[in-house]
Amino acid sequence: MRKNIIRICMILTMLVATIYITNGQASAKTSSTYKTTEVNQIAHIKSKTSKIYKKPNDKKKFILANTTYTGRAFYVRNKTTIDKTTYYQLYQGSKEIGWVASGDLKRYSRKLVNKTSSTVYIAGTGTAYDMPWGGTKNKVYTLSKYRAKSFKITRTEKLGTSTWHKGTLNGKTVWISATHIKTNPYIALNLRKTSNITAKEMQAFLLTKGKLPDNVLYKLAPTFIELQNESGINAQFMFAHAILETGWGGSTIAQYKNNYFGYQAYDTCALTCAKYFPTGKAGLSAYVYKIYRDYLTTTGAYYNGPSLLGMNVKYATDKGWSEKIADLMAQMKPYNSSYYSKKSVSTKVFPAPKEYDNVIPETKAQPASYHTMPSDITAKVNVASGATVYSLPYIYSSKYGTYKKNKSITLKAYHSDVRDFKNDSGKTVRWYRISYSGKQGWVRSDQIAVQNLAFTTSDGTNLRAGADTKYTKVASVNKNTPIKLVKKDNKYVTKKDKNKTTWYQIYKPGTTKKAWISSSVIQMYN
Question: What is the CB-side half-sphere exposure of residue 406 using CA atoms within 13 A?
């Protein structure tokens, strides 16, 4: 009996000897040997609670990643599979960290793309790291401090779908993601270095794009060179910028107002509110002064370096704006590094030009969206607080004054580029142009009562000889045409057709002849 007990105890001792207790849990000891395979990867540890083993086959000896090993990238040198779990050996530089199970890692294989040296330019976004796909603890520089600086690439690798470049920045070897560098040298050019482009070269560029000599920018090419000489700002940049802003010279604002950069062109009244300039040079001078003052001088309100990349920080919400301009510059004339490396930065001071308002003189051509009111369209102020007279059809514009209740007003025009808006009561409001103390002023439809005015609601609206579609069409007008309604005994003259649709008698636009229009295609703002 004693011998049996001793034998049982020996068997139990042998079983216990093959068990390790780790953190209160039992785990079977695996083989003391394991085979490894070399790999070339970068990895991040997913969690602070992820385990880092000294050896992949010894589950007793491990540390938790905690904050020490999260938030950084590691080199992966080897892998092994034990009990159907794959483990990867991590290194921090040449120092081994340990082994981590695949489920606790985010990994990418490294693929050499090339070792070709090339010069690129730092966009000013993102971070430079001490290794590719670095984490916060691998950070070397914040790249906003190096915007538009050149960066010489010495090695390029692919990690998954991402491309990373190795090079030297400020004396340190760093890795930068391809998403944070630019390759077009124009994007980093100091825009206070004048171009050697000629007016003829700019015009020739437009011709290659199908633009004819009657194009507004084609005509202005010599003016860009003239202003480059006066301001010291690169003409090639200014011309490319004008192309982008005007849609190759085709914008209505450029055509009618010599306004090539949308000055004061508020979204709700772009054409009407945009500033008017009497000449092309006057319009360009306003632009040159703003760029000079705000973006290309160190004291400028939006200065972030005198390059396209610097301007893009504040000038445009489109983060690809700088690349679009640089691309146009490159198409116009290839970058000449020898020329620009020898060119000095201009120190010229560009004076403030004359200020202008938004009004196109009556002697000049008026846009089709400017609709002159029919004669004798009158309104009366119908709110106790009076009708505010604004300088622009824009609620945040300056105010000229206020008309008291019951004051009669003659309405001069309606501009269909000006958007209607909803007032605090949810009522749709339309803007009307008036004359106020010899100036253009604007009043709101919700502060006045209009006596005899309606607007068509669609293009191709038919005017009839009688109050029914069976009558002869006497005219066809477009959407938003102001229509003067006929009144008799202070009431609108109306009739109903066989379908009980109401028709209004009106004055045919531009004449004193009468016609009829269906109530279904007009709208009144009272």
Answer: 0
Residue 136 sits in a domain whose CATH number is 2.30.30.170
- How far is 100 from 48, CA to CA, in rounded Å? 12
Indicate whether 207 and 303 sit together in one domain.
yes
Neighbours of 111 (CB within 10 A): 12
Measured distance CA(525)–CA(367) in Å, rounded: 23
**What percentage of the chain exceeds 90 in pLDDT?**
92
Domain count, the chain: 4
pTM: 0.85
| CB atoms closer than 10 angstroms to residue 306 | 23
Predicted confidence band of residue 451 (pLDDT cuts 50, 70, 90): confident
Q: How far apart are CA 351 and CA 38, in angstroms?
A: 67
Q: Are 101 and 85 in contact (CB under 8 A)?
A: yes
Q: Which two tokens stand for residue 157?
A: 């690798």
Residue 335's domain spans which residues?
199-342
Residue 51 located in a structural domain: no
Instruction: Answer whether 269's CB lies under 8 Å from 275's CB.
Output: no
The kind and range of the H/E element at 115 are none
Helix 216-231 / helix 199-208 crossing angle, nearest 10 deg? 150
- Give yes or no for a contact between 415 and 371, defined as CB atoms under 8 angstroms apart: yes
Write phi, then psi, for 280 (nearest 5 degrees).
Answer: -60, -40
From residue 155, alpha-carbon distances to 115, 132, 146, 177 in Å are 4, 11, 20, 12
From residue 256, alpha-carbon distances to 211, 275, 364 in Å are 18, 10, 8
Mind listing the pLDDT tens digit for each residue in 395-418?
999 999 999 999 999 999 999 999
